Amino acid sequence: MKTQLTATVVNGTLQFDEPLNLPEHSRVTVSVLPKPSDVLRRQEILRKLFDSFDEQPINVAPFTRDQMHDRD
After folding, report:
1. Given CA atoms 41, 43, 46, 52 in this order, what sign does their dihedral have?
2. How far apart are CA 59 and CA 20, in angstroms?
3. What pLDDT score does 46 carry?
4. To which H or E segment does residue 15 belong?
5. pTM listed for this prediction
6. Cα torsion 12, 35, 31, 5: sign
């Protein structure tokens, strides 16, 4: 039997959205793939972050050797 189910990770364990119709103590193989919507959401967040770098650049003059090494 091959089926595709969705689940949520809670405290490091998978909690399936629907019950499995398998006998107790059945051994299964699980492939974990992120939901496509999660991947797209992360890509959008990263795009916005990198765009903000262009909109608000941090202009810092290079430090001198003495400024980088506090010599009291």
Report:
1. negative
2. 57
3. 93
4. strand 13-16
5. 0.42
6. positive
